[in-house]
Design goal:
alpha+beta; Peroxidase, domain 1; 15% strand
């Protein structure tokens, strides 16, 4: 999902995207980035070691090579990860992945949409929602879904910088605000 992405992360992602584009491996590189991100999410001690300024760059390069070889990561991606180590920017990896994803989606005329619902939605409802979003946005939609019971009922949709809030909690908040404003006028 589109989160705050630093200018630095965007620059690194754009550079990697352009480099991957030279060999037509944009999708494979993105897959590599996701594998590494997911591995590090499950191995916080490895991540801490990779972002630590106390760790020697030589040992960090070794870790990248070992992990990369075991996971079948492309050389271009391993070189990029080593460059992040060299520049001490490994802490930006999550933001770089998000920026790379946005760039890849833009190229493919795709948009990532975050849907938050009050309850779990069944497959048919998700497919209907996806079709409606694709029709409305004019792009291929990739959906991330979450459940947030505090919405009471309904859902919120975030597509890029657009937000649609069709939740009961938002409706109740707006109703409360209107009632408060009306009572202020009557006093």
């Amino acid at each position: 999902m589109e989160k705050f992405v630093s200018l630095i992360a965007k620059r690194y992602a754009n550079a990697l995207f352009e480099l991957a584009g030279l060999s037509g491996s944009e999708d494979e590189v993105f897959g590599d980035l996701l594998k590494i991100r997911d591995f590090l999410a499950k191995s916080p001690e490895v991540y801490k070691f990779l972002v630590s300024r106390a760790s020697s760059k030589t040992s960090l390069y070794g870790i990248i090579e070992r992990i990369g070889a075991e996971m079948g990561i492309l050389r271009i991606t391993r070189n990029f990860l080593n460059m992040l180590v060299e520049k001490r920017r490994f802490g930006e990896l999550e933001a770089i992945v998000a920026a790379y994803d946005a760039k890849l989606s833009e190229k493919k005329s795709k948009v990532r949409v975050e849907v938050t619902a009050a309850r779990e939605m069944d497959g048919e409802t998700l497919q209907n929602l996806k079709r409606a979003l694709e029709k409305g946005l004019g792009k291929v939609v990739s959906m991330d879904t979450r459940v947030d019971p505090s919405l009471v009922a309904g859902l919120t949709i975030r597509a890029g910088n657009r937000i649609i809030d069709a939740s009961i909690s938002n409706y109740l908040k707006m109703l409360r605000d209107r009632l408060y404003q009306a009572s202020e006028k009557n006093q």
